[in-house]
Amino acid sequence: MTIFLASVGFGLVTASVLAVAAVGFTLQFGVTDVLNLAYGAVMIAGAFLAYVINQAGVNVWIGLVVAVVACSAGSVLLNSGVYSPFQRRGASPITMVIVSLGMTLIIEFGVQAIAGGTSVSYTLSEGPSVHAGGLVLTTVQLVVIGLSIVVMAGTHVLLRYTRLGKAMRATAANKSLARNCGIRTSRVITITWALTGALCGLAGVIFAIDAGSFDATATDLFLIMILAAVFLGGPGQAYGAMLGAVVIGLATEISAAYITPSYKYVVAFVVLLAMLGVRPAGLLGATP
Amino acid sequence: MKFTTPVTGIVLLVAAILTGCSSATSSGGGTGSAPAGAALTVADVAPFSGPDAALGPTYLASCYGATSAINSAGGVLGHQLTCKSVDTRGDPADAVPAVNQMFASSSNLGLVIGCTSDEAASVVPVINAHKMAMFCMTGQSEFDNVKFPYFYRLVPPDLEESYAMVAIAQQLHYNRIALAFGNDIGSQTFIQPAIAAIKKAGMTLATNQTLDLHATTFRTEAEAIIQSHPDVIMTEALGAADPTLFGEIKQLNGGKMIPIIGTSAAISPPFFKSAAAAVGATAFTSNFHADNLVVESSGPAFKTFSTALLAEQGKVPGATGDFTTYLSAPGGVHLYDGINLAALAMLMSKSTSPSVYGPDIVKIGNGVPGATVCYSFASCAASLKAGKAIRYEGPGGPTSFDTFHDSTGIFQVDTYSASGQVNVVGNLTATQLRSLSG
Fold first, then answer.
1. Would residue B142 count as lying in a domain?
2. Of A109, A117, A173, which has the smallest distance from its Cβ to B53's Cβ?
3. Whole-prediction pTM
4. CA–CA separation, B62 and B327 (whole Å)
């Protein structure tokens, strides 16, 4: 029972990090039509930027803010400099996936060329641990969970109650129709890149904080988990991504308590494949 | 939102490929004698990226040190020696094309070093087929009795290192042992011999956890280890894995570390830096021991070695942390010896072709009756020039190659100081290891 409760706690932390990343990823995909596989690489670039700042003696939470801003700007540049020109030339979705895969390698190995191939850690006090039953969480982990809840709530408010959120939803649903209705879709798309880039930066730093040690390729496997959460919830569905993150986060950590832990990611994908078999559009995706 | 199921499948497949994406830097190949005056390349075939990325720079540091000393002593048969990196990413699938590219893209390759357990099984046959001499840092037992004529090894089989770890646990009076090894080939080879040795020593295996080196957290594994109440954890999971595990164990164990026994691969500056950053230098160093091959820390061979290596500080790409740690790193020491042995064999045979100079590596390493013992490339080269038979003894101590070109050393026990310097705190006798063997 103790290990079950402990693994639930671990699952919540994993789900929190995953949720921030997955919501950003799915919003980006839903509104911009780009399945940006370079998302994980941008995350780790943000994490390393915060590391550089942290190594200069600055608090990592300030590094987090800088990474959020930098990844936001970087994502806008990535779109305007790379993805958008390809889209204007009528590149197919699969071509865009390959382009994003290329960007992944460029960014990831670019970071590695600068930072080296070894792992690094932030200088950060974990704070006192909180024990509740079998749950053991550090103050930093509680902050990560709190940040995730704030992001989820903020995303809900944005999409449900703001003009921008409604414009994003309209653009995601039907770009041409949205444009004909007077929505400046290109502007909405740029803002979406900025917002989701910010989430990407946030996810990168809290991922690195949660992992403890990280290197330039640390998000390779995590990107697969992001994709699992996104597709489990339904591609383009922000609420689906939140739900998917919780399911994947808990499934991986709880299963690790009872089977060989190295198979925990297999469990995540078994859950995903089973779900896609029953509901191909995902948990909250629109059925045709 | 407008994504169809088939496309979903393709995308997931493509994304999955991400985890195996490869990169390789290449250096030269070619197995004949190098043209007069051309630089002769020593290729460091090892991981420079991925979880074991610390290994490549460690070997490169020894290459820089050895080749610099050789060049200062006049080079080899009119050739200067240079070092190049060949990144295997620690993955056999990436290693083979990287090695093939190395052979295809250059003509003055004189020696290969590195070839760790991560990639040795796949690249050794390829390098051997190209008739290129190699000094490999693999302990895999498959090389104990399979003859590759161009393969040389100055490190013991992994199973002996497993015995060494258990012997350290015995010395420190630990009884309940937890194992936590990475899921890479190089780390997995330790597990079965370690379990057998634990049983033979009358100790208890508390738990055996396999760590996925690509995973980002090991909280569940850490919790399982803590709940098994071990006295000590034996581990090798390089890259971010071990530091992450240590940090999570400390967190979940009420801020207390559990003692750790690592392998010789943990004696490297990047490992110390990562582990100390994860749990704090004091907590790490007061709970850490590692087995390591006996290396000299004084005497003429060490003096030459340390002078040559430390002169390269700040020049070796990818080398981070306390550079003096490389003086004790098994790869740093034994590959330095390997390069010297190969270079001296070239002088002795008057050829840079491995098929010609290879047999002389064994003669110089094992010596012949009446051979002059020498401790550096310069002094050995002078003896050769004077027409004397030589026996080279480097900082790794005397060598004794068997018919499979394996020369296994003996072990010492290392710890770190809080500043990252390596301290030798004990030795393991052959009798101790034999008592733990199957």
1. yes
2. A117
3. 0.74
4. 9
